[in-house]
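Hey forum,

I'm writing up a methods section and want to include a predicted complex as supplementary material. The small molecule is adenosine-5'-triphosphate. I've pasted the protein sequence and the SMILES. Can someone with a working setup run it? I'll credit the forum in the acknowledgements.
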Amino acid sequence: MAIVELKNISFSYTPEQEIIHDLSLAFDSGSATAIVGQNGAGKTTTVKLINHLLIPSQGQVLINGHDSRELTTAKVSQQVGYAFQNPDDQIFNNSIRKEIAYGPKENGIKGEALEKKVIQAAELTGLRDFLDEHPYNFPYSLRKFITIASLVAMDPDVYIFDEPTAGQDHISRQRLAGIIKTLKSQGKCIIIITHDMNFVAENFQRVVVLSEHKILRDGTPQEIFTDTDLMTRANIEPPAVLNIANQARLSAVPLTVAELVNAL
Ligand SMILES: Nc1ncnc2c1ncn2[C@@H]1O[C@H](COP(=O)(O)OP(=O)(O)OP(=O)(O)O)[C@@H](O)[C@H]1O
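Reply by user p_vandermeer:
Happy to help. Structure tokens for the complex are below, copy them as they are.
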């Protein structure tokens, strides 16, 4: 059974314009999916429908088989963790430790069990040595890891990251890739929204292309990035390694630098 299922979802912010039309999508445990598409395609709206920040006008969102309409927002947020595009929309404590501890503490976890959750989340996200720092002593890009650590401490089944690589340097991107890989290996469901096709090509096996209020394609990066009509229609840039492969007239479809080097 899928851990998240959107069944024939429609949604509008205003009566004049439907943003999502009759969309169906399912996500499994132990999977990582990238949702891509041009600005305004409805990516953020779709994930907000998953975590109950928005309610569909039609259709159903099932979390672990339960209709999210029958769950409270608090209950959904225990199962679906959402890291906003801007970490400053989420961070409000004056130390990284307090920020990470906030969610589990609200759920009644305390003492050693709480400390253990904080340490585990900080270790996974590379924040172990900075727990007593003020979050705003960290640059914007690294504050994203504080919001991710706060989610990890809550141990949800589903993680949604909105534009996680925006403003990240090479080391942070690698750290992020490592976090996604670890969470996936723990059986978590990871969904990201991104414009970063290099990151998608290197780290995801499933790509959902949203455009024109619906899913244009749901497939592997190889399928998506070799479909030039689709990429034009959805305004997607292919990853850099594929551009190089095309210019070198290679028949291979490399998705990583290592694959490109092999093909050359
Ligand atoms: N609160 C809102 N009220 C009215 N319209 C909204 C609201 N939020 C988003 N929209 C509109 O809904 C459409 C889809 O927005 P959404 O943020 O879901 O797109 P997106 O694919 O995530 O875009 P981006 O890549 O730019 O973040 C856009 O036309 C946007 O202007």
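Some notes you might quote in the supplement: The beta strands are 4-14, 17-27, 31-36, 58-63, 66-67, 80-83, 158-162, 189-193, 206-211, 214-219. The chain has eleven helices and ten strands.
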